[in-house]
Amino acid sequence: MFEAGGHDMKVGVYASMFGKDDPPRLESVESYIQLAYQLKLDVIDFHSGRGFRSKQPAYLLEVKMQCLRYGLSIGYLASGGHFVGSDADLAEKLAQARSDVDTAAFIGAPMIRLFCGQPLKDAEAQRREIRCFQDAADYAAEKGIVVGLQNHPSTGEDVLRILEQTDRENFTLIMDTGQWVGSPARNQGVPDPEVDIYAFMEQTAPYIAHVRAKFYKIDTGEEAWLDYPRIIQILKDVDFNGTVSVVFEGKDLNACDDTEVIRLAVAHLRAVIAG
């Protein structure tokens, strides 16, 4: 029986390959799958261009079976997006998105990720951007796949504009905690005093399907650049019941190795969610 007000957020990890270890310990999707299993995570997210040895069906089926055996749901497959540029640029980006939709459908990922990028000022550029998101969503719908918009970097207003104008049932939001306009990560850990990124999160929270929880400096056991107690409360306030997935980007900021960074991030998220 569902209890109103309950929060059972899932915790996952993104196979980002952004670490500092040399030689890298986390250099393949398989290494992240193993780590996710060791940490008893619920979900793993992939990037279509990182960590896969191949895109051949036999290999992708191996990856899918390994996730299945370890009880890991696949949250999304990250693609590109950022639909600005010439007609040729847009055609190339859309072709990549369609290819990634096909891969997502094959491995059992329900969603692909597409960036929006900096808010566009030009009305024609905005129209072109929206047409691309619509085209990607229409193709994805034929395959039973959702398209998740990632704010990278954007504002609450611009995210809402894109969601409204794209106007597709299978178009949703993958909220990135660290990639708003004015985020600390865009200025070496220093927040922009003119911008309230938490207000952006509150604006968009009702539309979030998945959260990319950025971690930069976590070697103390608590993230230094982002306020996760505040972020998780924003999610709880809208009864978010989805996945909050660790995305590590603090390449040279932590005294510990990459595996320990992710373990600390997972422990921090779990403690805050339970609190």
Count of discrete structural domains: 1
N- and C-termini, Cα separation:
22 Å
**Which CATH class?**
Alpha Beta
Q: What is the average per-residue confidence, as pLDDT, rounded to a whole number?
A: 94
Q: How would you sum up this structure, described in words?
A:
With 275 residues, this protein is α/β, with parallel strands linked by helices. The chain has one domain: TIM Barrel, CATH 3.20.20.150. 40% of the residues lie in helices and 18% in strands. It is built from eight helices and eight strands. It has an eight-stranded parallel β-barrel, surrounded by five helices. Helix 5 runs parallel beside helix 6 and helix 7 packs across helix 8. The longest helix is centred in the middle third of the chain and has 21 residues. The two termini are 22 Å apart. The N terminus is likely disordered.
Nutshell version of this structure?
This protein is of the alpha/beta class and 275 residues long. 40% of the residues lie in helices and 18% in strands. It has an eight-stranded parallel barrel with strand order 1-2-3-4-5-6-7-8, surrounded by five helices.
